[in-house]
Give the backbone structure.
Amino acid sequence: QKEVEQNSGPLSVPEGAIASLNCTYSDRGSQSFFWYRQYSGKSPELIMSIYSNGDKEDGRFTAQLNKASQYVSLLIRDSQPSDSATYLCAVIHGGSNYKLTFGKGTLLTVNP
Amino acid sequence: GAVVSQHPSWVICKSGTSVKIECRSLDFQATTMFWYRQFPKQSLMLMATSNEGSKATYEQGVEKDKFLINHASLTLSTLTVTSAHPEDSSFYICSASGPLAGELFFGEGSRLTVL
């Protein structure tokens, strides 16, 4: 069973702080990793994708990947109340082509 | 980003009836679409992969005769929940693949409530 694990939270941070979201995956052959944001009652939207070890920055978001530790994270700098949502980690496992496996998500609350 | 439209956004039906959900890619051609189901506070679970012009590939445990998928054109895939029961009540979401592997564009989702 190929799994993607996330802490369900809720993770609560004050406005302006850095929010750190973590994800681990079981399949060492995984090559592609994604973070999706899902507001309550809405469908997910892609925030970041990362394919190689290291950091990838896009605006206030930084994705970090460590394949040796099978760990991927998302940092949100200068958190805003509008960032409050569930963040889903998703992985394409080795050999599965386009099929994504999603974690259960971490609920983030940014307090004004 | 690409736009995927899903309809209806919510539907209430009686037990035993069938419900059809449509998923359209509005500004691109989607040879592959995916159908997910999400129960409250749970993750998205892939139900099936819909390929234009061929039969859908269903995930283990998903009844293909109950969840009928048709992908007749490059811009439209439909999911029909046949003989719906209360346990089928869920949030159904379609998605279409973008140019990069794993880059999915999601429809707005359809919330089904079976009474």
